[in-house]
Write a structure and sequence with these properties.
CATH class of the largest domain: Mainly Beta
Largest sheet: 6 strands, antiparallel, barrel
Shape: elongated
Order of helices and strands: HHEEEEEEEEEEEEEEEEEEEEEEEEE
Structural class: alpha+beta
Radius of gyration: 35 Å
CATH topology of the largest domain: Trefoil (Acidic Fibroblast Growth Factor, subunit A)
Distance between the termini: 122 Å
Strand content: 25-35%
CATH architecture of the largest domain: Trefoil
């Protein structure tokens, strides 16, 4: 039986089937792409996210034996120690918050892992934290033993910097407070967890231990202008100068040392080596004399909200002489006194310690 040529209708039908099949494939691909995008938008990690996580994992630094660290408490203060071996919680000052993590078995210098036993040495006195039979802790021994070993708890795997960890011995968890340290805590709460940091990178509180005689200060009024002495020795209020015209060394006519208290008499030595004093004719301030007289002594008085105990950096103060208070108004600086004999708003300064200057 002979087969004839296919009809035009059959040819067009086959071509339509091909077109339909191609269209269906394209539609399915588009749906798959939309689903993939929607999945990514729903929170599935992208290639960029995975790369970022991998980079972050590389940046994480493990804690190793022999490292010097700081331990910040839940109150943003630090575990600190004194040269006598007392361990307590306070703001850090002069490296008293730095401890060294030592391997009690010796030799090993690798990473510290959760569950490892460590010895903690204070860097001021080179002594290890020792737990007595009553659970009290102090840094007063040079010998590593069972009573100086602490188990690191709070996670699994290597201990990383910026981890919060706890230390445990046979009595309980290490608890540091204002009045001392013990290991009698039976449970691990926020008070027994410490953030591991590096010395010099503290983000917690620094100890405000008061201004000392011999330190350098600057005096700023409420308008953020500074008391300063120009090259002629004349005093005035103005913006922060580029040099040290606004720096003053705080001294004592009686050669006192230590912390300055409210009610003490001070002497201010300017950048030119002369002492700030009061002119007798017009009560103006100047720094032209190399000798200390009654006109160059000032009693430090507390400003609003201040006035007892030690003087600290950033306190609001007033400086009083026999003829009045140093004026903090704009322009030339004189001594003034209110009608009632007390200081007024124009006599108040903020006393700020200068850390990078000596006069």
């Amino acid at each position: 039986m002979a087969v004839g040529n296919p009809s035009p209708l059959m040819i067009s039908t086959k071509m339509d089937y091909k077109r339909v099949a191609a269209g269906v494939a394209i539609a399915l691909f588009a749906v798959a792409a939309v689903v993939a995008v929607s999945v990514n938008m729903a929170g599935e990690p992208t290639l960029e996210d995975l790369a970022a996580k991998k980079a972050a994992a590389k940046k994480a630094t493990p804690l190793t034996f022999g490292s010097s660290i700081t331990l910040m408490t839940a109150y943003n203060e630090y575990v600190v120690h004194s040269k006598s071996g007392m361990v307590y919680m306070d703001g850090y000052s002069f490296g008293d918050d730095v401890f060294k993590i030592v391997n009690p078995k010796g030799g090993k210098k690798g990473p510290v892992k959760y569950g490892d036993k460590v010895a903690i040495m204070g860097t001021l006195n080179k002594k290890y934290l020792l737990c007595t039979y009553s659970g009290k802790v102090a840094g007063r021994t040079s010998v590593i033993g069972k009573d100086t070993e602490w188990t690191v708890v709070g996670g699994s795997g290597p201990v990383m910097l910026n981890d919060r960890v706890s230390f445990k011995n046979e009595y309980g968890f290490l608890r540091v407070s204002k009045d001392g340290t013990n290991s009698n805590a039976p449970t691990n709460t926020a008070s027994e967890k410490y953030l591991i940091g590096l010395p010099g990178q503290e983000t917690g509180l620094k100890l405000a231990n008061g201004l000392h005689y011999g330190e350098v200060v600057e005096l700023m009024n409420p308008d953020m202008q500074f008391l300063q002495i120009d090259h002629n020795g004349w005093a005035a209020m103005g913006g922060r100068p580029l040099d040290n015209w606004h720096h003053f060394a705080v001294l004592s006519a009686l050669h006192r040392e230590g912390v300055i208290s409210y009610g003490d008499k001070l002497v201010l030595r300017a950048h030119n080596g002369r002492f700030v004093s009061v002119r007798e004719d017009n009560r103006a301030l100047e720094a032209v004399s190399r000798s200390i007289t009654d006109e160059s002594e000032f009693t430090i008085v507390g400003g609003p909200g201040f006035g007892s105990g030690f003087v600290k950096s950033r306190d609001m103060v007033a400086l009083r002489n026999t003829v009045g208070y140093i004026d903090s108004k704009h322009g030339e600086t004189q001594l003034t006194m209110g009608p009632d004999g007390h200081y007024g708003p124009n006599n108040v300064f903020q006393m700020l310690k200068v850390w990078d200057s000596s006069l």
